[in-house]
Amino acid sequence: MSTTSNEVLSIVRAIREKVERDSDKGKIREMIREALKKQQALKMESSIEELTPLHSQEIHGICKSLPAELQQKADDLYLVSKLLRRDPRTLKMWREFNRDASELRKALDTASPGEGLEWVPTGFSTELIRKVRLEQKVSALHARIFMPTNPFKLPVDGSGVIVYLAEESKTDTAPKILASTPGTGAVTFDAVKIGCRVFTSVELTEDGIIPVLPLLQEKIVRALADAQEDATINGDSSPSHMDADISSPLDVRKAWKGYRKLAISSAKVDCSEFNVTTLRAIRSAMGRWGVNPSDLAWITGISVFNKMLGLPEVLTVDKYGSNATILTGELAKLDGIPVIVSEFVREDLNVDGVYDGITTTKTILPLVYRPGLLYGDRRTIKLRVSHELYMETEQIVAIAMQRLDFRPLEDTSSRPIVGLGINIGN
After folding, report:
1. Residues 246, 252, 254, 255: what is their CA dihedral angle, to the nearest 10 degrees?
2. Do you find a cis peptide bond into 151, omega within 30 degrees of 0?
3. 128, 151, 196, 251: least surrounded by Cβ within 10 Å?
4. Residue 252: closest CA among 215, 223, 221
5. What's the rounded Cα separation, in Å, for the pair 114 and 56?
């Protein structure tokens, strides 16, 4: 029991004793006011301890270190609190989460703000973000960086340093090693905002929503992963998209330039004759960017993958051996290059590899130089909930949003970091 609580009890006992002795009424009233003041202070102290304003940056750092199981519970707590518009600490779920975190809390200095007292989820955890990335196949091929600002300029290497023969020094006037100045450049990342919507009934209670939390999270995870993959393959941020059926400025495929748009004309190969020779011609067209198999990946749709299975040079994963390194989504290898199957490779294109609404019987086969492309993440996944927007249908809309960008690290006007097989029949 706190000191303030003990003080209140002592004052109340003294008041009772004075009343029983019929002592000075003025003194009794003064003691009652003092007791009420102490009681009010006790309530305020309790309220502050339970509902301290959140320090998002500090909490985010702590929650990232929680075990995966606790991160999952934190995500559930965050999602329910947003949908019900309630402070997470007022939910029944909070007690279980708080109890499970108690052992970890003991290892921290609980007297310091943000260390133990305030493990309150204010956003989705790194565990849910990890799940989004596990769902990704194509997007997982490229590295990611955190964008400290938006826009963010990333310095990149240009031309390399030249090595020369050095003469042995025999006198103090021996010639110096020839110098070279390495080229430098910069890639500017400008984050775009992508988001998805999930509808739930307005008649929500905490107990009623818990069973559907896995479904809501699965929808959010799948939607965000699919959006990144679709934009990575089919993206075109030009004012007029290369595909005639993509005209909405809100279409996620207008977020950035993807593989198809980044492939220069000299790296496009007619693969109407589908055989290993034409496929190797795609790699040859990439020049030095197509040399190392470990830096490359084939991106196929279903129909092209079925064609590739008919080539004796293609090895499926069951033939690699148990010690082989297998990428997410990898189902085979051709010439040591992993084959990634994606549902977002369009199979309704024309002979040039674009959609025109006339010829819709062709597909494509990108070959990607993986180190030449990079994601920039500006903000992790955040959730916003509106209770008013769909009042007439008695629905709540939950919107998950993320800010990121995708950029080539090479000058794609002249450097073929993406090879593209075109004119492939379905």
Report:
1. 180
2. yes
3. 151
4. 223
5. 9
Q: How far apart are CA 289 and CA 142, in angstroms?
A: 15
Measure CA 197 to chain center. 16
Classify residue 336 as left (phi > 0), alpha (psi -120 to 50) or beta: left
Q: Give the position of tokens 């009934």.
A: 201
Name the CA dihedral angle for 101, 103, 109, 110, rounded to a multiple of 10 degrees.
50
Structure tokens at 269: 């190969």
Predicted pLDDT of residue 117? 37
Beta-strand runs (E) in 34-97:
none
Mutual angle of helices 213-234 and 68-84, in 10-degree steps = 100
Q: Which residues of 63-86 are buried (b: 16+ CB within 10 A; e: fewer)?
A: beebeeebbbbbbbbbbbbbbbee
In 10 A of CB 129, how many CB atoms?
A: 20
* Domain range list for the chain: 3-50, 56-120, 192-425
Task: Read off the amino acid at residue 314.
Answer: V
Query: Quick one: tokens of 160?
Result: 């390399």
Res 53: pLDDT: 34
pTM over 0.85: no
What is the DSSP code (8-state) at residue 309? T
Rg (CA), the chain: 31
Residues 80-130: pLDDT tens digits? 777 667 777 777 777 777 766 654 444 433 334 433 333 445 555 555 555
Question: Beta strand 337-341 with 143-146: parallel, antiparallel or unpaired?
Answer: unpaired
